[in-house]
Amino acid sequence: MARQKKAARHRLRVGLMTKLMIVILLAALGCKVYTLREEVAAAEAEKARVAALVEGKRQENDALAADIEEGCTPEKMQEIARRELGWVLPGEYVFEIGN
Q1: Is residue 46 part of a domain?
Q2: What tens-digit pLDDT sequence spans the chain (99 residues)?
Q3: What pTM does this model have?
Q4: For residues 77 and 80, what is the distance between their CA atoms, to the nearest angstrom?
Q5: Computed from CA positions of residues 41, 43, 46, 52, in that sequence, does the dihedral angle turn out positive or negative?
Q6: Do residues 94 and 86 touch, judged by C-beta distance below 8 A?
Q7: Quick check: is 25 in a domain?
Q8: Is position 72 within any domain?
Q9: Residue 93 domain-assigned?
């Protein structure tokens, strides 16, 4: 009889330890899932940012391709000379505003 009580107590202790380990494992898995969800959200935000950047570069490339197809026009040359070299027409005045 004493032996049966001891065996029952041992089974109860083993069953309790098993349940406790399962609860701990489930809690650890829950924390990991929560962390992974945050990482996925951050990755999706990064993906959207990069997609917007790619679209901007694609539009810039399309504009450059259109400029190449249009060829070198006098207006384009004048615009580039004004922007890059500071070229002005006779009689024009240029005002530079300094800091």
Answers
A1: yes
A2: 566 666 666 666 778 888 899 999 999 999 999 999 999 999 999 999 999 999 999 999 999 898 888 888 888 888 888 888 888 888 888 887 876
A3: 0.50
A4: 5
A5: negative
A6: yes
A7: yes
A8: yes
A9: no
Domain holding 33, by residue range, is: 2-85
Count how many Cα atoms sit within 13 Å of the Cα of residue 6 in the half-sphere of its side chain: 3
Instruction: Please provide the size of the chain in residues.
Output: 99
Tokens 């489930």 belong to residue: 26
Query: Tokens in use for 25?
Result: 């494992």
Look up residue 47 and give its two tokens.
């993906």
Total number of domains in the chain: 1
Structure tokens at 12: 């109860």
86: left (phi over 0), alpha (psi -120 to 50) or beta: left
Distance of CA 2 to the CA centre of its chain: 66
What do you get for the CA distance between the two ends of the chain, in Å?
A: 98
What pLDDT score does 28 carry? 95
Sign of CA dihedral 26, 28, 30, 36: negative
